[in-house]
Amino acid sequence: MRKMLFAVLMLVSWPAAAENVVRDISPAELKAQLETWGYQVFAHEDEEDRPQLLVNDTADDAAPEHKGMAMRMTGCVPEDAPFYDRRCDGYEFRAYLTPGFPIKDKVYADWNRDFGHTRAFIKEGHPRLAWRVSLAGGVTWDHVRATVDIWRTELVNYIDHLNASVMD
Q1: Is position 13 within any domain?
Q2: Residue 161: domain span
Q3: Is residue 144 situated within a structural domain?
Q4: What is the pLDDT of residue 13?
Q5: Is 59 helix (H, G, I), strand (E, B) or coil?
Q6: CA distance 84 to 27
Q7: CB-based burial label for 24 (10 Å; 0-12, 13-18, 19+)
Q8: Which end of the chain offers a freer environment for a tag, N or C, measured as fewer CB atoms within 10 Å?
Q9: Residues 5-9: what's their mean pLDDT?
Q10: Would you give the DSSP letter of residue 77?
Q11: SS3 132
């Protein structure tokens, strides 16, 4: 009887849960959601005409390099639509840092081997950090919020990792 009741409850709750699943998003939708979470967001197209959001946590007392992030939208269609209306199947967090001291290649390799979801690399002489997130199969806004929180934690940890590399 319990199994049958559980199955009935799952069927009854499934349509409500399915309605909350996001399979693609527009830059405008993501911007609006980030703003409800307390972020200040500026939407624009990057140098390659891809939608990108510049996100700043105005409520955070952290150092400026810990507060900002870029979220470039990926897999966006149609290309001829205004950038803020395109439907995108993912996003990529990006950080460009200028630590003020040289970073050895080993520091990036250590990060990529030992740490979470993000990928460290060097471009144009500056440390970078990136993490691509796919919406394939569908996610909820809670999942999107969790990725933002994870990114912010990993960015702080990456900056600490770079600062600690001075001692090596």
Answers
A1: no
A2: 22-167
A3: yes
A4: 40
A5: coil
A6: 5
A7: middle
A8: N
A9: 36
A10: B
A11: strand
85-90 contacts: CB < 8 A, separation 24 or more?
Answer: 85/26, 85/28, 86/26, 86/27, 86/51, 87/24, 87/25, 87/26, 88/24, 88/25, 88/26, 88/27, 88/51, 88/135, 89/23, 89/24, 89/134, 89/135, 89/136, 90/132, 90/133, 90/134, 90/135, 90/136
For the chain, the residue count is 168
Q: How far apart are CA 34 and CA 42, in angstroms?
A: 11
- The DSSP output letter for 76 is -
Q: Would you place residue 168 in the very low, low, confident or very high pLDDT band (cuts 50, 70, 90)?
A: low
Query: Is position 121 within any domain?
Result: yes
Q: Does the model's pTM come out above 0.90?
A: no
Report the CATH number that the domain containing residue 133 is assigned in CATH: 3.30.1460.10
With tokens 């470039």, the residue in question is 72
Percent share of the chain, pLDDT over 70: 83
Enter the tokens of residue 53.
């959001």
Q: Provide the domain count of the chain.
A: 1
CA angle 113, 117, 123 (to 5 degrees): 70
- Residue 6 resides in a domain: no
Radius of gyration of the chain (CA): 19
